[in-house]
Amino acid sequence: MILRPGEQPVPGYRLQQRLGRGAIGEVWKASAPGGTSVALKFVNLAGKPAIKELRALQHVKQVRHANLTPIHAFWMLDQSGDVLSNEAIEGYYGDKTAGRPAAGRDVARPTTLIIAMQIGDESLADRLERCRREGKTGIPVDELLDYMRDAAKGLDFLNAPRHDLGSGPVGIQHCDVKPQNILLMGDSASVCDFGLARVLGESHTTSAMAGSPAYMAPECIEGHQPSDATDQYSLAISYAELRTGHLPFRDLNYGDVLHAHLTGGLKLDALPPAEQEVVRRATSRVPASRYPSCVAMVKALRRAVEGPSMTSTDGSFASSGFSSSGFSSSEISGGISTTNGSLDVAPLPVPPRPATAPASAPSSMPARETPAAAATADESKLQVMQLTREANFDAALDAIDRAAGMLSETEMNQLRTAVARRWFTHTVQPIVDRNDFLAATAAIESGGARYSPEQKQQWLAEIKSRWTRYAAGQLKRGRNA
What distance lies between CA 25 and its chain's CA centroid? Predict the structure, then answer.
């Protein structure tokens, strides 16, 4: 379908200008009946069954919240560009059988989905660009936090299991939260574009890679079901970009961006330390470790920006003579006192040093021989090999450490490398073979703590390479579908 300014893809809606183009379609500004302006999103159905999208949209259209951009209307067009009625779409799929026309019926096939949505003054991506032109690093933080609060309220409402999509109350996941999809309307923000919304806990036909990779949560990258913390991850990435003026990645090529998501390697040093801590938690690779809601994350960001309060509720400091510990300041040892309104900290008394043991045992009491001293070098090597074969990797590493007085540094490093390889093959490789790259990375970060940083980096590089090949194959299959 070719779109041009001035055309009317559906009666009463005239295209004015294209606002953007993405992986699944285009967005246009259009005039609607009555002279109002709307955004029209065109989605190519690419031959996929449209009956599920039709029924889902019929329910999603009913979702209403002050911070969610409503869907005004939607249509499906056939290959000739004609609008199809719901009856025609139902007729094409026969008795609710996706992809097969009903016997004896000559009906058109849906090829394009059009969604009409409210149009905003500008997106947060547009607002950031204006700030850059004004010489600012990013959107001023007080202003930005207000926008984040509004977006968080909308997302929490969307994610809550309160929406009836035909099978009981469920939560809806947006799965494509980014600055371009947060619109400014007057002095408030609203989350738009439900084109990628998925019902939590239900199977979905949209590719896991259909969102925007720069903002995508690890669980979506690996094709897992989104959770009620998935949109929080994307909102936190958006905050980092809007606050600092750039995305939190060292490199912006596709493979490095996905690797940063999968390994927790986000570059957040442009944020103040307190804000880094909040964003780190909100972008945890484990969804359950994130904040309980998007609003909770934004509240934590506001506390980080404002800093801890140094005054009591009435604005005074230590007006009652009691410290935060509950003791009078005169009772605190160490001598914290006030002089002319300032704090003087007297040095704490230094406790006497305990008597130390003699450097060596008396000659009349010979030192006990340790197990490591009793074992020979060959016995130590055999012990390490046996423990490794038994997959008792921590004990094998302990045995290497105990043999420090009998083995050379080269021999010890060779043994450690052998244990590390066996650990990876036994523990991580089966996870990688399942294409569960997020879990494999987490296994290296936790279980690989006793191995060298160089070894861990090598493993992570191997996983990144394997993931890149896997993602390329998935994208190729998606284009050919």
Answer: 24
Rg, the chain, Cα only: 31
Domain termination residue (choose one: 62, 88, 119)? 119
pTM above 0.85, yes or no: no
Please state the rounded mean pLDDT for residues 171-177: 88
Residue at 276 is within a domain: no
Q: In this structure, which amino acid lies at residue 299?
A: K
Report helix, strand or coil for 224.
coil
H or E segment to which residue 16 belongs = strand 14-21
Edge-to-edge strand order for the sheet containing 182-185?
Answer: 122-123, 182-185, 188-191
Whether residue 208 has pLDDT greater than 50:
no
Report the CATH number that the domain containing residue 5 is assigned in CATH: 3.30.200.20
Structure tokens at 5: 């300014």
Chosen domain end from 119, 152, 168: 119
Contact yes or no for 41/193 (Cβ under 8 A): yes
Band the pLDDT of 101: cuts 50, 70, 90. Answer: very low
Confidence of residue 50 (pLDDT cuts 50, 70, 90): low
Does pLDDT of 271 surpass 90? yes
Q: Which of 23, 18, 19 is nearest to 123 (CA)?
A: 19
Q: Pseudo-torsion of CA 74, 79, 84, 90, nearest 10°? A: -100
| Structure-token pair, residue 146 | 């207000």
Nearest CA among 168, 175, 173, 197 for reference residue 53 = 197
pLDDT at 236: 98
What's the domain range around 111?
Answer: 1-97+106-119
Q: Does 155 map to a domain?
A: no
Residue 361, CA distances (Å) to 9, 357, 358, 367, 407 in order: 94, 9, 7, 7, 26
